[in-house]
């Protein structure tokens, strides 16, 4: 029985976030790709178990979703994958005691790249779409708790994220986050 070739975990800077290179198995019908494998994550020392799966469709290029995170005790680790279109994905370490606190890590995700992103609990996450009709699939390590849902502005000067394109759409909630200078986040 042919074994699946292992996926490849690539560290993002000095952080515990990982870009994961998947291994599509191609044949004349198309391809088959293993997305989640407990053994692969355990072998990397990553304690992550999917609890919930989500999918978002974003119709207009240039839309930004984020920056979002869930507060303790339900800080959410997640696996993120772009299954249609293309996204400029941004994570920011908001853990007050982390050696990479406040650091920004950027990845471009698209179906063709056969990659996905492991985002540990304690990171804020957001993305800007680089094509119309971009779909993002998530595996979440905790359930969604609206009361613990939190975030900050995509253009918060205390963070300094550089987005690649003009912003075309933003939810009212994402436009209304307080500036970090008005709150103590880390
Ligand atoms: C996250 C979530 C949301 N919802 C409900 C709440 C709203 O009624 C609706 C849309 O939620 P929201 O506007 O927060 O969707 P996004 O702006 O795409 O938020 C996501 O975008 C950034 C980039 C992320 O990393 C998070 O996964 C998530 O916060 O779905 C649920 O029912 N379950 C959930 O797990």
Automatic annotation (TrEMBL):
Q: What is its EC number?
A: 5.1.3.13
User: What processes in GO biological process is this protein linked to?
Assistant: dTDP-rhamnose biosynthetic process; polysaccharide biosynthetic process
- Note the site residues: Participates in a stacking interaction with the thymidine ring of dTDP-4-oxo-6-deoxyglucose: 144
> Domain of life here?
Bacteria
Enzyme active site: 68, 138
Q: What class of enzyme is it?
A: isomerase
Q: Which reaction does it catalyse?
A: dTDP-4-dehydro-6-deoxy-alpha-D-glucose = dTDP-4-dehydro-beta-L-rhamnose
GO molecular-function terms, A-Z: dTDP-4-dehydrorhamnose 3,5-epimerase activity
Q: In the UniProt record, which is one GO cellular component term?
A: cytosol
The entry's function note states: Catalyzes the epimerization of the C3' and C5'positions of dTDP-6-deoxy-D-xylo-4-hexulose, forming dTDP-6-deoxy-L-lyxo-4-hexulose.
- The protein's name is dTDP-4-dehydrorhamnose 3,5-epimerase
Taxonomic lineage of the native organism: Bacteria, Pseudomonadati, Pseudomonadota, Alphaproteobacteria, Hyphomicrobiales
